[in-house]
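Side project, low priority. Logging it here so it doesn't get lost.
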Amino acid sequence: MKEKRARVIFCDFDGTITVNDNIVAIIKHFDPPGWQPIVDDIIAQRVTIQDGVGALFRLLPSARRAEIEAYALDNIEIREGFSELLAYCREAQIDFYVTSGGLDFFVYPTLEPYPIAHDHIYCNGSDFGGEWIRVTWPHPCDAECASGGCGMCKTTVMRRFPPERYERILIGDSVTDFEGAQLADLVFSRSHLTKKCRELGVPSVPYETFNEVLDHLKNMPSKQT
Protein backbone atom coordinates (compact mmCIF):
# COMPACT_ATOMS: atom_id res chain seq x y z
CA MET A 1 0.00 0.00 0.00
CA LYS A 2 1.31 3.40 -0.96
CA GLU A 3 2.03 5.84 1.85
CA LYS A 4 0.73 9.38 1.95
CA ARG A 5 3.42 12.01 1.68
CA ALA A 6 3.66 14.52 4.51
CA ARG A 7 2.58 18.00 3.51
CA VAL A 8 4.96 20.88 4.07
CA ILE A 9 4.32 24.54 3.29
CA PHE A 10 6.96 27.08 2.27
CA CYS A 11 5.48 30.55 2.62
CA ASP A 12 6.96 33.83 1.47
CA PHE A 13 6.78 36.85 3.80
CA ASP A 14 6.87 40.18 1.93
CA GLY A 15 3.70 40.63 -0.11
CA THR A 16 2.46 37.21 1.01
CA ILE A 17 2.18 37.01 4.80
CA THR A 18 2.21 40.80 4.72
CA VAL A 19 -0.01 42.83 2.42
CA ASN A 20 2.83 45.11 1.32
CA ASP A 21 6.36 44.42 0.15
CA ASN A 22 8.32 45.71 3.09
CA ILE A 23 11.69 46.07 1.37
CA VAL A 24 10.19 48.21 -1.38
CA ALA A 25 8.11 50.16 1.16
CA ILE A 26 11.19 50.99 3.23
CA ILE A 27 13.20 52.07 0.20
CA LYS A 28 10.34 54.16 -1.21
CA HIS A 29 9.75 55.90 2.11
CA PHE A 30 13.38 56.85 2.76
CA ASP A 31 13.86 57.50 -0.96
CA PRO A 32 17.65 57.30 -1.36
CA PRO A 33 18.93 58.45 -4.78
CA GLY A 34 19.22 55.66 -7.34
CA TRP A 35 16.88 53.06 -5.83
CA GLN A 36 14.28 52.76 -8.63
CA PRO A 37 16.60 51.32 -11.34
CA ILE A 38 17.80 48.70 -8.84
CA VAL A 39 14.24 47.59 -8.07
CA ASP A 40 13.45 47.48 -11.81
CA ASP A 41 16.52 45.33 -12.42
CA ILE A 42 15.54 42.89 -9.64
CA ILE A 43 12.00 42.46 -10.99
CA ALA A 44 13.26 42.03 -14.56
CA GLN A 45 15.89 39.53 -13.31
CA ARG A 46 18.74 41.57 -14.79
CA VAL A 47 20.55 41.31 -11.47
CA THR A 48 20.44 38.58 -8.84
CA ILE A 49 18.22 39.08 -5.83
CA GLN A 50 21.27 39.04 -3.59
CA ASP A 51 23.06 41.73 -5.57
CA GLY A 52 19.94 43.86 -5.92
CA VAL A 53 18.75 43.74 -2.32
CA GLY A 54 22.30 44.24 -1.07
CA ALA A 55 22.64 47.30 -3.29
CA LEU A 56 19.33 48.76 -2.10
CA PHE A 57 20.24 48.66 1.57
CA ARG A 58 23.72 50.01 0.94
CA LEU A 59 21.89 53.22 0.01
CA LEU A 60 20.60 53.61 3.58
CA PRO A 61 22.79 54.91 6.44
CA SER A 62 23.07 52.76 9.55
CA ALA A 63 22.62 55.90 11.66
CA ARG A 64 18.93 55.85 10.72
CA ARG A 65 18.43 52.33 12.07
CA ALA A 66 15.81 53.29 14.68
CA GLU A 67 13.75 55.21 12.11
CA ILE A 68 13.96 52.42 9.56
CA GLU A 69 12.99 49.69 12.02
CA ALA A 70 10.13 51.75 13.42
CA TYR A 71 8.79 52.56 9.96
CA ALA A 72 8.96 48.93 8.85
CA LEU A 73 7.13 47.56 11.89
CA ASP A 74 4.55 50.35 12.06
CA ASN A 75 3.48 49.82 8.46
CA ILE A 76 3.24 46.03 8.29
CA GLU A 77 -0.24 44.63 7.73
CA ILE A 78 -0.82 40.88 7.97
CA ARG A 79 -2.83 39.29 5.17
CA GLU A 80 -6.31 38.13 6.15
CA GLY A 81 -6.61 34.51 7.23
CA PHE A 82 -3.00 34.00 8.34
CA SER A 83 -3.83 32.95 11.91
CA GLU A 84 -6.52 30.60 10.64
CA LEU A 85 -4.10 28.98 8.20
CA LEU A 86 -1.54 28.42 10.96
CA ALA A 87 -4.22 26.91 13.20
CA TYR A 88 -5.22 24.51 10.42
CA CYS A 89 -1.61 23.52 9.81
CA ARG A 90 -1.19 22.64 13.49
CA GLU A 91 -4.42 20.64 13.46
CA ALA A 92 -3.56 18.81 10.23
CA GLN A 93 0.11 18.31 11.21
CA ILE A 94 1.41 20.29 8.23
CA ASP A 95 4.87 21.75 8.80
CA PHE A 96 4.83 25.49 8.03
CA TYR A 97 8.08 27.24 7.07
CA VAL A 98 8.52 30.93 6.38
CA THR A 99 10.99 31.34 3.51
CA SER A 100 11.62 35.04 3.19
CA GLY A 101 13.85 37.29 1.15
CA GLY A 102 13.17 39.92 3.81
CA LEU A 103 15.43 41.02 6.66
CA ASP A 104 15.59 39.82 10.23
CA PHE A 105 14.89 43.22 11.81
CA PHE A 106 11.31 43.20 10.56
CA VAL A 107 10.60 39.51 9.87
CA TYR A 108 11.24 38.11 13.37
CA PRO A 109 9.41 40.86 15.34
CA THR A 110 6.40 40.61 13.04
CA LEU A 111 6.13 36.84 13.43
CA GLU A 112 6.80 36.82 17.20
CA PRO A 113 3.09 36.75 18.16
CA TYR A 114 2.47 33.68 15.99
CA PRO A 115 3.21 30.03 16.86
CA ILE A 116 6.11 29.61 14.42
CA ALA A 117 9.40 28.27 15.80
CA HIS A 118 12.49 30.32 14.96
CA ASP A 119 14.05 27.34 13.20
CA HIS A 120 11.04 27.37 10.85
CA ILE A 121 11.80 30.96 9.77
CA TYR A 122 14.38 31.57 7.05
CA CYS A 123 15.31 35.14 6.17
CA ASN A 124 18.29 37.39 5.49
CA GLY A 125 20.28 39.15 8.18
CA SER A 126 21.29 42.77 8.68
CA ASP A 127 24.44 44.48 9.92
CA PHE A 128 24.22 48.08 11.14
CA GLY A 129 27.85 48.21 12.28
CA GLY A 130 29.20 50.20 9.33
CA GLU A 131 28.26 53.52 7.79
CA TRP A 132 25.69 51.90 5.50
CA ILE A 133 23.35 48.97 6.14
CA ARG A 134 24.83 45.66 5.06
CA VAL A 135 22.62 42.68 4.29
CA THR A 136 23.99 39.31 5.42
CA TRP A 137 23.15 35.97 3.85
CA PRO A 138 22.93 33.09 6.35
CA HIS A 139 20.99 30.82 3.95
CA PRO A 140 22.93 30.80 0.64
CA CYS A 141 22.39 28.74 -2.50
CA ASP A 142 23.53 25.12 -2.54
CA ALA A 143 25.35 23.52 -5.47
CA GLU A 144 22.05 22.50 -7.08
CA CYS A 145 20.55 25.98 -7.25
CA ALA A 146 19.91 26.77 -10.90
CA SER A 147 20.04 30.54 -10.57
CA GLY A 148 22.58 31.38 -7.87
CA GLY A 149 22.64 34.67 -6.01
CA CYS A 150 19.25 34.11 -4.37
CA GLY A 151 20.36 35.54 -1.05
CA MET A 152 17.95 33.42 0.99
CA CYS A 153 17.73 30.41 -1.31
CA LYS A 154 14.23 28.97 -1.15
CA THR A 155 15.01 26.00 -3.39
CA THR A 156 17.91 25.01 -1.14
CA VAL A 157 15.48 24.83 1.79
CA MET A 158 12.91 22.94 -0.28
CA ARG A 159 15.43 20.33 -1.38
CA ARG A 160 15.87 19.31 2.25
CA PHE A 161 12.38 17.81 1.92
CA PRO A 162 12.66 15.07 -0.75
CA PRO A 163 9.64 14.81 -3.07
CA GLU A 164 9.25 11.08 -2.50
CA ARG A 165 8.46 11.81 1.16
CA TYR A 166 6.92 15.28 1.10
CA GLU A 167 4.16 17.05 -0.78
CA ARG A 168 5.76 20.48 -1.16
CA ILE A 169 3.41 23.46 -1.20
CA LEU A 170 4.62 26.97 -1.99
CA ILE A 171 2.77 30.22 -1.23
CA GLY A 172 4.26 33.34 -2.78
CA ASP A 173 3.94 36.44 -4.86
CA SER A 174 7.18 37.56 -6.47
CA VAL A 175 10.55 37.10 -8.11
CA THR A 176 12.00 35.35 -5.05
CA ASP A 177 9.46 32.54 -5.52
CA PHE A 178 9.98 31.78 -9.23
CA GLU A 179 12.48 28.94 -8.84
CA GLY A 180 10.69 27.36 -5.89
CA ALA A 181 7.44 27.27 -7.85
CA GLN A 182 9.07 24.87 -10.29
CA LEU A 183 9.89 22.41 -7.49
CA ALA A 184 6.56 22.54 -5.70
CA ASP A 185 3.68 20.07 -6.04
CA LEU A 186 1.25 22.91 -5.51
CA VAL A 187 1.70 26.67 -5.91
CA PHE A 188 -0.52 29.38 -4.49
CA SER A 189 0.32 32.57 -6.36
CA ARG A 190 -0.48 36.22 -6.65
CA SER A 191 1.01 39.29 -8.37
CA HIS A 192 4.33 38.71 -10.20
CA LEU A 193 4.35 34.99 -9.35
CA THR A 194 1.01 34.37 -11.07
CA LYS A 195 2.31 36.00 -14.24
CA LYS A 196 5.58 34.08 -14.10
CA CYS A 197 3.83 30.76 -13.51
CA ARG A 198 1.82 31.33 -16.67
CA GLU A 199 5.02 32.06 -18.59
CA LEU A 200 6.73 28.95 -17.19
CA GLY A 201 3.70 26.73 -17.71
CA VAL A 202 3.56 25.99 -13.97
CA PRO A 203 0.01 25.39 -12.67
CA SER A 204 -0.90 27.67 -9.78
CA VAL A 205 -3.89 28.55 -7.65
CA PRO A 206 -4.40 32.33 -7.43
CA TYR A 207 -5.22 33.79 -4.01
CA GLU A 208 -5.73 37.16 -2.37
CA THR A 209 -6.27 36.06 1.23
CA PHE A 210 -5.13 33.04 3.22
CA ASN A 211 -8.78 32.08 3.59
CA GLU A 212 -8.71 31.03 -0.07
CA VAL A 213 -5.54 29.01 0.52
CA LEU A 214 -7.12 27.38 3.55
CA ASP A 215 -10.32 26.44 1.72
CA HIS A 216 -8.30 24.83 -1.08
CA LEU A 217 -6.10 22.85 1.33
CA LYS A 218 -9.08 21.54 3.25
CA ASN A 219 -10.69 20.20 0.08
CA MET A 220 -7.72 18.61 -1.67
CA PRO A 221 -6.80 14.94 -1.25
CA SER A 222 -3.36 13.97 0.01
CA LYS A 223 -1.01 12.69 -2.67
CA GLN A 224 0.60 9.28 -2.28
CA THR A 225 4.13 8.10 -3.03
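Brief comment: The beta strands are 6-11, 95-103, 121-127, 134-136, 166-172, 186-189, 205-206.
Revisit when time allows.
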